[in-house]
Amino acid sequence: MADIAGKKILVTGAHGFVAGHLIERLADAGATVVGIDLWVLRQSYLSMSPAMRKTDLIACDIANLQEVQELFEQHRPDVVLHLAAQADVTRALANPLGTFEANVRGTYILLECARRRWEREEGPHAMVVASSDKAYGTHAHLPYREDDELLGLFPYDVSKACADMIARGYHRAFGMPVGVVRCANIYGPGDLNFNRIIPGTFRSLLRGERPVIRSDGKPLRDYMYVGDAVDAYVRVMHALLDGNHAGEAFNFGTGEPVSVLQVFREMAQVAGRPDLEPEVLGEAPKELQDQFISAAKARRLLGWQPLVPRHEGLRRTFRWYNDKLPELEG
Fold first, then answer.
1. pLDDT at 20 over 70
2. CATH number of the domain that 124 lies in?
3. What pTM value is reported for the model?
4. Which of 108, 156, 170, 223 is catalytic?
């Protein structure tokens, strides 16, 4: 694997949950990390981490061409890890325009600015783009594999499918060293989006409240611990820096789908509140039903595999919320 010590790595969406963990890993490896987000100061996993002090954090709107051009000219990153997105499925239905601006326009602006910068510089370079398992939409078979069509149906799914195809198109057209990551549902310490099932449920359980499940609780999903997701991004980055797998997409997931109700029961046990029953709304008709992916390609070509089983990941996650929730709500 390529040595990243001293490499300048740009991470977009730095205050995002996964990006914060990724920045920790990169900083520990000796990389020079430039993080961008819409806000420099924001409550996030990164803002609560010692890695915040090792990160050059800059306010930047990735949908603003001038801002991104100036960023590339000033900082000249060797690597871009693009995780910034409007990532809330429900919010995407309420604000599709903002979702497409962030997820589609933001992606092609970053790709174009990187292309213009890197064609004037010696490599190696790498750009890793966060797609999603949601980009596959609905197929007649499961699990989804990388050669399945991207058939996103609703605004969030479509936005990620577009970004995915644009990224791979930049490799085909211009030889850009781009790789695409399609992850299953990611959970773990530091996710402050309490509309998601795991952080929202743990918060409710700690408050002694009945958790709310928007769907009927039956959809099957694959839940992957954040540390395994970080390893996925790092392995794709290293492959690109070594000159391998440019223009390819990789799935990352555990291959162990579980219903929303089952993962709720597991969380209630971990939190010591099996007495609290969820309030099941059955009000998520525009979310995909069953969805999980095969990570066989990543296992075979990248040597990646999930290391944290769900029961252990949920224990680690609960401990973090148990410790940090009073501070977050204070």
1. yes
2. 3.40.50.720
3. 0.96
4. 156
